[in-house]
Amino acid sequence: MVVECWKILCKLSIMTGLEVSRLLLGLNCGRPLETIIPPESAKALSSKHDFDLQAFRFSADNEFLREPRVVRVGLIQNSIAIPTTAPFSDQKKAIFEKLRPIIDAAGASEPVDGESTEFLQEFARKYNMVIVNPILERDINHGETIWNTAVIIGNHGNIIGKHRKVNENHIPRVGDFNESTYYMEGNTGHPVFETAYGKIAVNICYGRHHPLNWLAFGLNGAEIVFNPSATVGELSEPMWPIEARNAAIANSYFVGSINRVGTEIFPNPFTSGDGKPQHPDFGHFYGSSHFSAPDASCTPSLSRYKDGLLISDMDLNLCRQLKDKWGFRMTARYELYADMFARYLKPDFEPQLISDPLLHKKSS
Amino acid sequence: MVVECWKILCKLSIMTGLEVSRLLLGLNCGRPLETIIPPESAKALSSKHDFDLQAFRFSADNEFLREPRVVRVGLIQNSIAIPTTAPFSDQKKAIFEKLRPIIDAAGASEPVDGESTEFLQEFARKYNMVIVNPILERDINHGETIWNTAVIIGNHGNIIGKHRKVNENHIPRVGDFNESTYYMEGNTGHPVFETAYGKIAVNICYGRHHPLNWLAFGLNGAEIVFNPSATVGELSEPMWPIEARNAAIANSYFVGSINRVGTEIFPNPFTSGDGKPQHPDFGHFYGSSHFSAPDASCTPSLSRYKDGLLISDMDLNLCRQLKDKWGFRMTARYELYADMFARYLKPDFEPQLISDPLLHKKSS
Q1: ipTM of the complex
Q2: Which residue of A171, B35, B66, B359 pairs with A180 in a disulfide if CB–CB is 3.0 to 4.6 A?
Q3: pLDDT tens per residue across span A14-49
Q4: Least CB–CB distance from A338: residue in B209, B338, B361
Q5: Which CATH class is domain A33-345?
């Protein structure tokens, strides 16, 4: 199995462990979050390499039976580094170089006494991070099939597992994004990965439009779901602030939304059969990465135009606290929907439609 | 079957037909909507009776095979009219009197040449309206059971059908809203009602928190789903602007969100076993009724404190246009979720969890 990495780093997300003295603000339902001051070294990197840097904190109530479970999570959004016409290997190297200082800034956000011990993989081991790395996977063992995959790297640098984008069970067929022509529907279910810092899952890109997809990760126990995306303003920007927040609310978990940033010009203008004139780009990838919490609060978004790193501390206890408060799992009645889907999936399904018997009555 | 009406009118929604010359603005994705100037008679009623009055218009693209299907829809939010200690019949009468001028204003929003013909039921026939009327239903034929029901009144004043709040398949057990103690889970499925002006459904109150519930109305063909609610600020306000908009986006239909308004004091303070001190009210019902469209656009909200009427014209063709643009139905893969629910519902269900084998490795 060869792992290629071009698509990927535009969608990098990072999670790193940290003991943080808890706040006692209670649930910050929609209230502004507390801002974290990043360390000077991180601020220096962001100004030297010109990327957006923001940091916040989600709090939860104290519990009798569990200690706070505060983790620090980072989202990186970035543009490509050199033109789309450059050789693939050069593009890949250039993106690595661009990301290095941003990941260093994420690592610098760990306290000086952080437990970075082993060094199995460059950044994961250097900073004791879990890294979520969406890639384009070439599956030699299955006819060289291409999958849209996310690789989960543990905080010791080990690969915990990979996830063939379950959300790419749902492959976009919209506008210029005819992605079913270049990878396969996923076949790995809706896996949740138990890491040193919490249970995480990845709902990639277009999968965010499917509430069932978000739900499945929730039923499998996710505490944080990352949504690495590459989407453009004209297509999805009005939906962007809504869907991730709704998923966090409905499933009582945190969501980390990451979007590519920048406008990429191709040498040959193209069309996609949607009646639009030919154009040399997909439109503007609008960045605006952000975190959503299960209590409906959320962070501000990163820049719409610049590379950026968004850091947030979050007490994962908030997930169960919201489950207990709202009881969505206990009121869900999934059996009703299992039955409805079974009926809906039959070719002869007829909707439950009650027509007004006077529908075609003439008015006198 | 006796229909009682106290709970109800705080949740009234109205739909009335109207031929409107179409706009050619195209899809207004998140852009400000065009404002409609209500007729003078409606404005006069709103100032005389001191209720909020707003009116907007959602447009859709022209189609080759279908004429525009513009309907005018109204949402009414209101407070109670006399103290909660007054006799039930007096409270009911008082709410009727309070609502009369607001419904007249909704009717006045029909053009002078409107086709009001028959007079089977006061307002429906007077204004050629379809009226959605959520009630508390006493079911004599089933042991005097109480159901949380919505009655759909056709534009000829006829009762098209009733719907025992499918969404109250999902009965809240949160804070002071222990509603499972005073009505039954619905047993009428997820019906969609085909009216003279479009296919409508009702997702009442707490049902808005369940994406599956919204989905089921969509699978049954709803073009507008009303969400009459009675919810308070401290509990749900941060979620209010998110959930309805997400439902409209995910299911390619319009959503009309109605919330009760006002703070209601009861003579005997109460608690609900959630650790809070006793209190004589549920909190503030924050109104903020609004419309959401399938293209992610939405109207401003009605007042947080005053009774109000929100009118909107909407071209229902927008629903199919968004389905064709985004293809959510074609990429949904419901079979995966039917299978997952079947597994999840078993007592021995085990989540798809992949643990880091180094999870408990000591750092050296």
Answers
A1: 0.78
A2: A171
A3: 554 433 322 222 223 355 678 888 889 899 999 999
A4: B338
A5: alpha beta
